[in-house]
Amino acid sequence: MRVLGIESSCDETAVAVYDQRLGLLAHQLHSQIAMHQAYGGVVPELASRDHVARLLPLVRTVLAASGSNRQSIDGVAYTAGPGLIGALLVGASFARSLAFAWGRPAVAVHHLEGHLLAPLLEAQRPALPFLALLVSGGHTQLVDVQALGRYRILGESLDDAAGEAFDKTAKLLGLPYPGGAALARLAEQGAAGRFTFPRPMLDRPGLDFSFSGLKTAALVALAGRAPDPQMRADVALAFEEAVVETLAEKARRALATTAHRRLVVAGGVAANRRLRERLAVVARASGAQLYFPRAEFCTDNGAMIALAGCLRLAAGVSQGLAMGARAHWVLGELTAVGDEATGD
Length: 344
Ligand code: KG4
Ligand code: ZN
What we know:
The chain is of the alpha/beta class. The protein has a 5-stranded mixed β-sheet, sandwiched between helices. The radius of gyration is 20 Å and the shape is globular. It starts with a strand and ends in a 30-residue tail after the last helix. The chain binds 5'-O-[(R)-(carboxyoxy)(hydroxy)phosphoryl]adenosine and zinc ion. Zinc ion binds next to helix 4. The site of zinc ion (ZN) has 4 residues, from helix 4.
């Protein structure tokens, strides 16, 4: 079984071909970051228009690179939500129409399911079930991944997502959008101990998060002073440490309260080196194994959508001719479709 996957939920147009037997055959991505940077964030209307322009050339390139044609593709998967509705509709209508023209099934994929399953693209891949820390630009959740489609949310952010907090604090530090990776680079130059930021929600039971206070802590640290480069780096480090320690401690508690022996970290912030290092320590101390996708499959990509679509299609799930997309779509609403997604 071979599936073409299309991701267009935000500011990346991404396409991939995943083969159930052979694995990932090709993937490509066009990032709109340079286009949106002038505005300091994603402009939804521009995002939709750019997806329209990029999709068809990308699909042609990826089909050729994967050695596939319409005969060898068994289904077309697309991100149906959550995300920017205009951007989602471009990918959904494109993918649904392509599947119709090819006489193949179309598969709607939840963007966060894509992120959760992205570690299955790696040679070192987790078997299901596992505990996942999902940290993206829009979501921060601890998820009990029981089976394909059966996801129980154990805790989540009550306000800003971890990636959003990185981006907002990066902006305060004068870094261009999206600032997460740039902030992490700046933090490398930081001196530990100059600032200590709060560790939100660690004093409370439960597995929820709150990150909106950290940008205030950064504002207070910077207040009234012209930040020299060293100070900016020190603030970046204090912020990063606060986020990483909070995420790692909640992951430790979630491992302790569930029987899971596999911890997955996924989503854009999972590309953060300090977070991975800290989670590796937590996993080892908890007798668990840590899994994560390579950095390019932590952030938005088509490979995770092609993979999730392939697993769903193999389990017999596909959509009718009516095409749909949802800006808001809660991961916990999905229903189990089987246990096919097992690794080693
Ligand atoms: O998963 P993703 O590509 O998009 C969403 O579905 O939201 O995540 C993007 C987020 C952005 O907030 C970005 O700043 C953050 O991931 N990010 C990072 C790093 N690389 C990307 N945050 C911290 N450290 C990084 N190295
Ligand atoms: Zn994402």
